[in-house]
Amino acid sequence: MPDATRTLRFGANYTPTKGWFHHWLDFDLDAVRADLDSIAGLGLDHIRVFPLWPLFQPNRTLIRPRAVEQLVQLADAAAERGLDVNVDGLQGHLSSFDFLPAWTQTWHRRNIFADPEVIAAQEEYLRTLAAALADRPNFLGMTIGNEINQFSHDPHPDPDRISQEQAASWLERMLAACELGAPGKFHLHAEYDATWYQDGQPFTPAQAARLGAATAVHSWVFNGTAQRHGRTGTATEHHAAYLIELARAWHTDPHRPLWLQEVGAPAPHIPAEHAARFTERTIANALDCEDVWGVTWWCSHDVSRELADFPELEYSLGLLTNDREVKPAGAAIALIAEQWRGRAHKPQPRTTALVVDTGDTLTSPARAACAPGGAFFEAWAELTAQGVRPAVVLAEYAYDKEHLAARGITEVVTPEQMEPTHA
Q: In the UniProt record, does the keyword Hydrolase occur (predicted)?
């Protein structure tokens, strides 16, 4: 069980300034070092790193030693600057682009979650990356992949459809491969918010909240939240906190750590001149939740305008410019990290809980109510706007005195009991 008074971690998802994630094709350790210097200069303590799966494993039975060596060099460079490293393995999906090996596509089309040969190759790939870093003190552990659930369901144009049972089995095998490569490290998985919001999504809240060393949440207000509530709306500035509290409802360990692993200020929903305020408010609200492991901002550096075809918002999400100059959001998070350095994180329990009912706890067939515009989402936002600090409790535990007491909950409210107000 984690120490409830441990200090918080603040970091950035590392986006290389030279060539974006294509930098693995022309790996330049000096450029990486300069990038890491600028990240460390913000006072951050960790980075999340993204190998591109097709470049590291271009054939099902070939994991390129040189690519693995370069990943280790990056981790060692981070260590020299006081930065710990988490590595995402199966990339997977990044900033609207898919990166899948040729041996899973077109003429070799195979389901990446269900085909036995693909699964075996993924296991060996994750084990190899983890083993290469296992003896590095600054290696935190592996994340299986970045929002890989987007490959399993709509709206992906060519999804690899699977059942929830297949998703759970796949996650368990991938996590076991990471553990085999680097025993005892902080291995986890991470999905985009369809896990919490989309009916029929095979990757479920229960899987997110119960498999792996921590629960990861990715908070993006361009999902309808900012469009509905505006840039300063309660729901917008508390979206990350909402996801954290929603995730906690499925925890079986009341002190399981939660990692706000991705959060950013996307333009035009959050205009550049308001990015610092959004950063400050979002992090402050997230840190008003218990058992937060840390915050990892998306992303470290802006994407170069020399690169084509990204969605417009992707170019400007960095804490630093592509020339490594600190932006207002970067200055804001640097100040937050400094203010929290050495301080224990122990917010007061949230004593009022809003009841969420998604149907069966394990399968959650009715998740749409939790999405922006859904009855539960809007009720939670209304309560928050009224000055309440709402937790979330599953319907099956709403009258379980032992469960409520373990979480410090003394009052339970259902969305139907609330008076409608404007959030």
A: yes
DSSP annotation of 65: H
Residues 201, 15: Cα–Cα separation, whole Å:
28
- With residue 132 as reference, give the H or E element that holds it: helix 116-133
What strands, in cross-sheet order, belong to the sheet with 9-13?
A: 188-190, 139-146, 84-90, 46-49, 9-13, 292-297, 258-263, 215-219
Contact indicator for 172, 196 with CB cutoff of 8 Å: no
d(CA 255, CA 407): 9
What letter does residue 267 receive in the DSSP assignment? T
Give 324-379 as a 3 state SS string: CCECHHHHHHHHHHHHHCCCCCCCCCCCEEEEECCCCCCCCCCCHHHCCCCHHHHH
**C-alpha distances in Å from residue 161, one per residue of 92, 145, 216, 228, 367:** 16, 17, 23, 31, 18
- pLDDT tens digits, one per residue of 152-187: 999 999 999 999 999 999 999 999 999 999 999 999
Strand, coil or helix: 296? strand
Q: What is the pLDDT of residues 45-77, one digit of tens each?
A: 999 999 999 999 999 999 999 999 999 999 999
Positions of the chain with pLDDT lower than 50, given as ranges: 1-4, 420-423
The answer to whether residues 360 and 419 touch, using CB atoms and an 8 Å cutoff, is no
Residue 396 has, within 13 A of its CA and on its CB side, a CA count of 10
Peptide bond into 268 cis (omega under 30): yes
Q: Which one-letter amino acid corresponds to residue 418? A: M
pLDDT at 419: 59
Q: What does the pLDDT read at residue 368?
A: 97
% of residues, the chain, pLDDT over 90: 95
Domains of the chain: 9-340 (3.20.20.80), 352-417 (no CATH)
pLDDT value of position 423: 37
> Strand 93-94 to strand 97-98: parallel, antiparallel, or no bridges (unpaired)?
antiparallel
SS (HEC) of 104-124 = HCHHHCCCCCCCHHHHHHHHH
pTM of the model: 0.96
Q: Which two tokens stand for residue 225?
A: 């939240």
The sign of the torsion formed by the CA atoms of 405, 411, 416, 421 equals: negative
Residue reference for tokens 């970091």: 11
